[in-house]
Amino acid sequence: MTAVPTTPDREPGAPPVSARSAPVGAATRLLLATDLSDASASATDEAFELAGRLGASLLVVSVIDPGALLLPGGRFRARIDQVRERREQLAQALVERGREEGVDVSFLVWSGDPGDMIVEAAQSERADMVLVGSHGRGAVGRFFLGSVSEHVVRHAPCPVLVVRPKEAPQLS
């Protein structure tokens, strides 16, 4: 797993730093920005590990993008209330995981532009650090973060740890 801690003023191309050596100071409130999909599992695991080591609370924020639910022609492929209910169920499972691992976990499920809403949550909830996943997009895509991750890195009021998915083992 490659985790890249970054702050809004972090220079592009700076060498990655693992979470184990990331300068976290006295972080007591971590915010995990996630869509609660399998693709964000690495960021979730990293957030739980870091929160456990620091004795920090973990706020899970999942944002429903209404625009992503639109089909051509303006119809919705899923209702927002149905998506919200599913996300709340998945987030509640993370609260249970936190109980088992001794991590205080709470969650928010918001609707809106994901990048803006994650930054707003980090500000309003006074997060000390944001953890966000980045999709693995092959060799060329490794030079670019996803648009949500990049927006959070550029606008968050605190350090951001971008966690790429675990790579599949190489076959010989």
Give a description of the structure.
By secondary structure, this protein is an alpha/beta fold. The chain has one domain: 3-Layer(aba) Sandwich (Rossmann fold). It is built from 5 helices and 6 strands. A 6-stranded mixed beta sheet has the order 1-6-5-2-3-4, sandwiched between helices. Helix 3 packs parallel to helix 5.
Under the CATH scheme, which architecture would be assigned? 3-Layer(aba) Sandwich
Provide mean pLDDT, rounded: 83
Report the principal-axis shape: globular
Describe the sheet with the most strands.
6 strands, mixed
How are helices and strands ordered from N to C?
A: EEHEHEHEHHE
* Count of the domains: 1
Task: State which percent range the strand residues make up.
Answer: 15-25%
At the fold tier of CATH, the topology name is Rossmann fold
Number of helices: 5
User: Spans of 5+ residues with little confidence (pLDDT < 50)?
Assistant: 1-24, 139-144
Topology readout:
Elements (H helix, E strand, L loop, with lengths): L2 E4 L22 E5 L7 H14 L2 E8 L15 H22 L3 E7 L2 H11 L4 E5 L4 H4 L5 H9 L4 E4 L9
Parallel strand pairs: 2-3, 2-5, 3-4, 5-6
Antiparallel strand pairs: 1-6
Gist of the model:
The protein has 5 helices and 6 strands, in the order ββαβαβαβααβ.
Labels describing this entry:
Rossmann fold, 172 residues, alpha/beta, single chain
